[in-house]
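--- STAGE predict ---
source: upstream dedup step, 1 unique chain passed
mode: sequence only
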Amino acid sequence: MRSFALSLGLFFFGSACNSSGDHPDLGILPGDLSVGDAAPRDFASDGAALADMGLACTTIPGNVIISNNQEWMTLVGGGCIIVGGQLQISAPGVTALSPVANQIVSVGSLAITQNDALTSLSLPALKTVGGEVIVNNDDALTSLNFPALTSVGGNFGANNLPVLMSVNLPVLASVGGNLNFIMDPALSSLGVPVLTTTHEIDIDTDPLLPTLSLPALQTTTGIIAIKTNSTLASVSAPLLASSAGLYMISNAALTSLTLPVLTTMSGDMTVQNNAALRQCLVDAVKTGLTTGPTAYTASGNNGMPNTCP
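--- STAGE serialize ---
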């Protein structure tokens, strides 16, 4: 659809943009927005029409696919934007997102892939993602910042990002699927200070990550896998009480393992080939379990002296 029609089928009034009631007026744009395709929708007219009606919040029930940043910049208003489907950003050559990105408060899912020039990504108003978050193969991306994001219904993965240095998720409390940071060779800062629950955690082949701190994590319904992180010196999850399994393998610099209240492990516990880790620290975690593991493998943890308080 290339024109914008005003009809009751497209607009609803007196609705709420979110449960707090911050945005009492809601405008709905039908279908998908494909930015940069051969025949883009005329959402310059869409945005003007919404502004004329004084609507504070725009809902796009379908997907927003951004392959060119220019036309998307026309859809700018004072309120929030909800994307019911997937927000997909795959825009080679684009170095920064349009200011309209600052208005997005909720998406069905988020995919940020194949952006060869995008250096930083911040969605400062994004609060919820119903499905998954995928960030990968963005060759210039150095920072990832979602300061308002509280929940992700599916997986959250930031993988294969060659220059990504920092990830900031200061209020993310729950991830319904897996939390993955895999093959990010420049990653040196990972902030998830209030994460309380997730399915699986996979920290794999991130050679510059010095510490993994999960101060609020209480449970994982899947496994925790921490593998091949050559400078990782400490892993701490002081509130973690239950997990489906623990795999800590080939973290050469690991010396500190803090899991003081972990009592339940429904799957396997495998801690191997962490050359600087004292075996007594591993044994202490195993001894603290009152349920599980189904199998226990510990070897090649050769830190000295092998004495623990």
